[in-house]
Amino acid sequence: MEDEHVFARFFGALKRKWLWALLALVGVALVVVGGTLTGEKKTAAQTAVSEEDRTESYRRALEAEIAEMVRALDGVGQARAMVTLSEGERITYSGSRVAGSELPQVCGVAVLCEGGADPAVQAEIVRLLTALFPIGAHRVYVGPLA
Fold it and tell me: Closest Cα partner for 103 from 73, 121, 83, 76?
């Protein structure tokens, strides 16, 4: 009878040790899994900043390409360009995954260049920019570079 009591106490203590060990393993697993899940997700502020950076980089790249194209025209020397965009980059989601993104549209372009006071040069630059972007001539300004 006493032997049964010793075995019961031994196995009872063993069950408690296994329970604590199992709880400890579950806790470690939750910490590891929780850390990787939160590491992958960005906050709304971080997402907005990265979208803003991409939009700004896109705008600067457009300005540089426009200035380069305008400088290649006959009668134009140095050139600077400024682009206005409709809004930031649009990102579409499918569930929690990014399904696609759409770059902002060009709303207007201003070009200042050497030779920009010449009406023939102005007309050529306006023709170039309206051919490149879906904007009307009223959305393009061309002027002399001071």
Answer: 83
Q: Which residues contact 37 (CB under 8 A, 6 or more apart)?
A: none
The three-state secondary structure class of 15 is: helix
Q: Give, in words, the CATH class of 57-88+103-144.
A: alpha beta
Give the start-to-end residue ranges of the domains of the chain. Answer: 1-41, 57-88+103-144
Beta 106-113 vs 97-102: how paired, if at all?
unpaired
DSSP 108: E
Q: Which residues pair with 46 in a beta bridge?
A: none
101: phi then psi, degrees, rounded to nearest 5: -140, 155
Residue appearing with tokens 């170039």: 128
CA triple 83-84-90, angle to 5 deg: 115
At residue 80 the predicted structure's pLDDT band, cuts being 50, 70 and 90, is: very high
Is residue 79 within 8 Å of 63, Cβ to Cβ? no
- The model carries a pTM of 0.64
